[in-house]
Amino acid sequence: MLFLSVAEHYMSASVQSTMVDSAGPEAQKFSLKEVLDTFKLCISENDEVFVEHYVAGWRGLVKFMNSLGNVFTFISKDAVSKIQILVNFLNGESGAHYVTIQSMVRYELDNGLVDLSKKGGSHPESGCRTLLRLHRALRWLELFLERLRTSTEDSKTSVMCADAYNESLSQHHPWLIRKAAGMAFCVLPGRPTFFEVMNVGNAEAVVAMLGDAVPMISKVYKITEELYAQNNLLEIP
Ligand SMILES: CCCCCCCC/C=C\CCCCCCCC(=O)N[C@@H](COP(=O)(O)O)[C@H](O)/C=C/CCCCCCCCCCCCC
């Protein structure tokens, strides 16, 4: 628990006080279908990614996280903080430039709004940097959901989650966060509870819906990854 408290303290410094999700408990109920539908809306006909639906997808996932208990708060707070930064850009005076990830990248790069190196720049929370953090987490999600989809009744969510994390997001986290995340994974509920919280129906229905969700999430990830790679944005500090 020590690691979790330290990590929560570490995170709280960067978490904004205005939370994105402030509705009542019923509005907070998670539905995998809702998340899937939102990620489907993310991609335009010409493969642009809508920021509005991207953050809405993450909001849905945060609902899931919040239903797992307080031990995961330090993780969901960070996601909420990053969602809020992007929502603020979308609702701000330059909002028209933040409609898609492609237009955001173009706008921020053309106007020198991204700190590309560690040396104290004046845009520590650019849209590009913020979205990159969620983008890396999306890879974890893709790997985790694929493991969940192909899992068997006795598979452990903690192991699937840790394996997906070690294969992706952990490479971008310092030791303390890795340890705290590792401890949080140990108290994840089992596969039956996970499936129940998804509000889809029986295990077969969950697996079928995951079969739709994973390629969709994969596509959003791939488009973003290519865009960031083309613009040398994959390592923004
Ligand atoms: C379909 C249902 C099943 C899956 C539901 C998953 C629900 C996931 C919801 C939220 C995921 C959290 C996303 C976390 C974003 C992390 C972004 C990040 O890397 N932030 C770090 C870097 O930020 P800066 O300091 O550079 O601004 C930050 O330091 C990290 C802080 C918190 C720790 C993040 C640990 C991530 C573990 C991800 C696995 C979550 C396990 C949940 C299991 C349901």
Automatic annotation (TrEMBL):
Record InterPro entries: GLTP_sf, Glycolipid_transfer_prot_dom
Biological process according to GO: negative regulation of interleukin-1 beta production
SUPFAM superfamilies in the cross-refs: Glycolipid transfer protein, GLTP (SSF110004)
Gene source species: Muraenolepis orangiensis
Record-annotated Glycolipid transfer protein domain positions: 51-199
Compartments where found: Cell membrane; Cytoplasm, Cytosol; Endosome membrane; Golgi apparatus, trans-Golgi network membrane
Catalytic activity: N-(hexadecanoyl)-sphing-4-enine-1-phosphate(in) = N-(hexadecanoyl)-sphing-4-enine-1-phosphate(out); N-(9Z-octadecenoyl)-sphing-4-enine-1-phosphate(in) = N-(9Z-octadecenoyl)-sphing-4-enine-1-phosphate(out)
Residues in the signal sequence: none
One cellular component term from this protein's GO annotations in UniProt: plasma membrane
Superkingdom of source: Eukaryota
Record keywords: Cell membrane, Cytoplasm, Endosome, Golgi apparatus, Lipid transport, Lipid-binding, Membrane, Nucleus, Transport
Assigned protein family: Belongs to the GLTP family.
Keyword Hydrolase: no
GO molecular function, one term: ceramide 1-phosphate transfer activity
Pfam families the UniProt entry points to: GLTP
Bilayer topology annotation: Peripheral membrane protein
Protein name: Ceramide-1-phosphate transfer protein
